[in-house]
Amino acid sequence: MSNQGKQIELPASLTVRELAQRLNTSPIAVIKELMANGVMANINQQIDFDTAEIVAAEMGYEVVRPHAEEKAGGGLKDLPRWRQVIAKEKPDNLISRPPVVTILGHVDHGKTTLLDAIRHTNVAGGEAGGITQHIGAYQVEHQGRLITFLDTPGHAAFTAMRARGAQGADIVILVVAADDGVMPQTREAIDHAKAAQVPIIVALNKMDKPNANPERVKQQLADTGLVPDEWDGDTMVVPISAKQRQGLDDLMEAILLVADTLDILANPDGTVVGTVIEARRDKGRGVVATLLVQNGTLRMGQTILAGNTYGKLRAMFDFRGKKVRKAGPSTPVSVMGLRDVPQAGDLFEVVENERKAREIVAQRAEQVAQSAQRKQTISLEQLFEQMQSGDVNELRLIVKVDVQGSLEPVVSSLEDLSTDELKINVLHASTGNISENDVMLATASNAVVIGFNVQADAPARKLAETEGVSIRTYTIIYHMLEDVEKALRGLLGPEYEEEVIGHAEVRAVFPVRGGQVAGCRVLDGVIRRNAKARLKRGTKTVYDGEIASLKHHQEDVREMRQGFECGINLKNVNEYQIGDIIECYVVKEKED
Ligand code: GDP
Question: Ligand 1 in contact with 109 (CB < 6 A)?
Fold first, then answer.
């Protein structure tokens, strides 16, 4: 393999997508390799060094252990786009900007309560009570300094952002309930933050509860690699009660302390760039999007390009719903004027005018279409080849259903459709909407995604389109089974049969350069130049193949009918005998 012996350095953990980038290959290739090693991982999943090492080694790389102090490292191109923009600004023009903070943690550990508590106690300008607007981000003031909070709890948004390389946050607050401790989603959040190289502050919540056990949680945190600072580690752990609004000042303090150790900078006069925090279509106002400005200053009337859409900013509001004319770095604003709804995590930038924006959007759409076409033709061809060689004898499915209760019946009724020749192979079945991960899995394994009483979410649909994966959703089980049965029959492909269309007898043999030509008379039917032929000698078939040339009086002809004389040369046959019979036949699809 061409990678043989190439050295590669891997961090302690990274996502499948990042590993693919480092290995210079597609995430699908990595997922396939993982599957081959018994690991089912999706594109955004964190894998540890040991697992990554196996994949890299399989691909011919020589893996180098990470340095103890594996840090931001990497080149500029590893950074999210907005960070690249800032990195390209002249250092003299960079000034400090408010830190952008996102709150992650296990479900029910108090993320929403904490966001509300911070909002009500610390909102800048002291307008606390009156705020009803939720635009997906807000700013608070502590000791005269601003902090921006992303108000989209749960890590769906964070993952979406990170997946697009937009990593919006500078600091992650990890909420861990002191009574419940480190849970699966806590670990996932830690992995996400580590992968994004964003520092973590732990908010040890629900300290008011009688069964709060902070020491136990600290031990659990230390076990995951987040050693509390009071134990000489470098993770700040702040005990709070979001419900009773206690410890919030300490938490703000901690954020500013951590912010001071980082270079949280931007050039307010530089290139405007930022991230879409959320967006929706409002009946009266059209598309409303919340944008987080990350560099430069966004101004009313400018034309922006966000993901695959664009528009001139008609109105701009801050998180309090107050009209503003401009927004600098780390400021969230709600804007109107985009033509279509961009996706959370999309990058936005300012462009000269709408014409320019249209051009860029068209270019991007073209690129997407092209890559979709490329992928589709490849996979179809591959499938066809496999069918021809008899390699494909199963229909692979990824099954998503609405409730746990229907999982088993749906899967088993699908599996019951298997026949002796064709198997239904359900690779993965679970509850919930069809996600990007399901589509990734389907791509990697040439599978079809089946949804029962569920929908495919927008990123999944987009990915399916680019990857040429087929998604089918049903609400009636009978329709689903009928369709899958049809698909099975489609996979079986048409059956072929032979039809003999004529015979010719060898009457003379003429030597030609490199062999012989058979001088024949057509006994019955027709001999066709592009058909197949067998050479029969007595009861034996001595050759089965194709006709190389068919001539009538030295002229090439397409066919010769019964009663005519012709010269026939069969491909790769050098010797004929008088009395041989040439049987001409065609292969065609069998009709039902
Ligand atoms: P999320 O799923 O992480 O957003 O969690 P929520 O903020 O919705 O909180 C889950 C539950 O925990 C709610 O019933 C809250 O009232 C409760 N809760 C949140 N913070 C505290 C706290 O500090 N103390 C106590 N006793 N309950 C809390």
Answer: yes
